[in-house]
Amino acid sequence: DESINFDSMLDEHRLLVGPHDRLDSIGQVQQLLAAGYDQYISFEPFAPAVCNLDDPFTAIQGSMDEIRRKLTA
User: The whole model's pTM is what?
Assistant: First the structure.
């Protein structure tokens, strides 16, 4: 929702990482990796829209594929 500014975002706005990610999640991961971080990284989409998906596995897999694509580009 582009009408929500960053300071107003709540857990309900935390969606899966995708092509329209407003928080620059990929950029954050790239900075961690560039600084030498080599541990696990989690993402926690708490939005009801994600939690209530009929097929969360496919949606999460798609998000992870998007992350991998952008990190290897």
Answer: 0.76
